[in-house]
Amino acid sequence: MALRIIPGDTIMTLWQKLTTRRGFTLIELLAVMMILGILASIAVPSYKQSVIKARETILSEDLYQMRRAIDAYFADRLTYPERLEDLVQEKYLYDIPVDPFTRARDTWQVVPPEGDSEGRVAPGSVYDVHSGSDLIGLDGRPYQEW
C-alpha cells in the first residue's frame, strides 16, 4: 500500500497513515492455526468412527437383504441358488451389493448348506453369505462372522 500525501496533511496524520496497517501479526496467525489444529484433532477421530459405523450399517443391511433373497429363492424352488448371480438373474436381487469394506462385489464369502441329521444336503451352494473383509468391527466381532 503506497503512502499518499495530500497537501494539508499534518505530521500527525502522516504518522497515522504510516502506522495503521491492515493484516495480522505472526502471533495472531499462529494462535489461529493452533486453535484449528486442536479442533481438527478432536473432530477427525469422531469422523472416522462415524464413517466406520455407517459402513457397518450398510453391511448389516446388505447381508439382511441377501439372506432374505436366499430364503425367498429356497421357499420358491426348494433348492438353494448355485451362486449369488442366480439371485440377480431370477430377480430376487436387483444387483449384488458392493461389500462396504472390501469395496468389491466379488469378495462375498458364500457358505454352502450343511447336511441334516440323516446326512441329506439341500441342493445348491449358497446357504448363507458373509463379508470378505478381514477387519474387526467396532463391537469386536470380525466382519466375516456377521
Notes on the protein architecture:
A two-stranded antiparallel sheet has the order 1-2. The mean pLDDT is 86. The protein has one domain. It is built from 3 helices and 2 strands, in the order αααββ. The chain is mainly α.
The assembly state of the depicted protein chains is single chain
Tell me the series of helices and strands, N- to C-terminal. HHHEE
> What summary fits the major beta sheet?
2 strands, antiparallel
Low confidence ranges: none
Q: Kindly state the number of beta strands.
A: 2
Search tags:
146 residues; mainly alpha; two-stranded antiparallel ribbon
Write a brief caption for the model.
The protein is mainly alpha-helical and 146 residues long. It has helices spanning 11-19, 26-77, 84-89; strands spanning 109-111, 128-130.
Summarize the helices and strands and which ones pair or pack.
Elements: H1 11-19, H2 26-77, H3 84-89, E1 109-111, E2 128-130
Antiparallel strand pairs: 1-2
